[in-house]
Amino acid sequence: MTDDLGFLTRAVELSRLCPPSETAFSVGAVIVGADGEVLSEGYSRELDPQNHAEEAALAKLPADDPRLRTATVYSSLEPCGERASRPVPCARLIIAAGIPRVVVAWREPDLFVAACQGTALLEAAGIEVVELPELAEAARAVNAHLLAP
Ligand SMILES: [Zn+2]
């Protein structure tokens, strides 16, 4: 049995570790295997200044790690469907890794890209996307400085 709320809470905790930025969201991500083992964790700007959380977490595992094929990605923010900083958005990285399930707390607001297509891309690839809105406020609070008028 998976503890979606617990792992997503951990992702939100990781988002608080991000080096501050005025131009990018702070996000945390946890990759959990089918047996409930944490395979990897990451957060925005962890490994380099342009890293996204899902990207940082995926970078710590071999691309052909067979556990990815049954894993779940927990991300405090919906994976990006397009991005300014790199050619491959996180939704495509998750699809390429063969991960079948994504759990998110917060839908990307129209701040840096209009109408985030991350969820649509994932679902079109057959990936199950689960939203736990009870954690959206916690994920958003980490980014409150970006959202203030
Ligand atoms: Zn991303």
Automatic annotation (TrEMBL):
GO molecular function: 5-amino-6-(5-phosphoribosylamino)uracil reductase activity; diaminohydroxyphosphoribosylaminopyrimidine deaminase activity
InterPro entries recorded: CMP_dCMP_dom, Cytidine_deaminase-like
Enzyme Commission number(s) of this protein: 1.1.1.193, 3.5.4.26
Sequence intervals crossing the membrane: none
Residue span, CMP/dCMP-type deaminase domain: 2-143
The keyword Lipid biosynthesis belongs to this UniProt entry's keyword annotation: no
Record's keyword terms, sorted: Hydrolase, Oxidoreductase
Signal peptide, first to last residue: none
A Pfam family assignment: dCMP_cyt_deam_1
Keyword Cell membrane: no
Protein name: Diaminohydroxyphosphoribosylaminopyrimidine deaminase/5-amino-6-(5-phosphoribosylamino)uracil reductase
Native organism: Kitasatospora paracochleata
Lineage of the species this protein comes from: Bacteria, Bacillati, Actinomycetota, Actinomycetes, Kitasatosporales
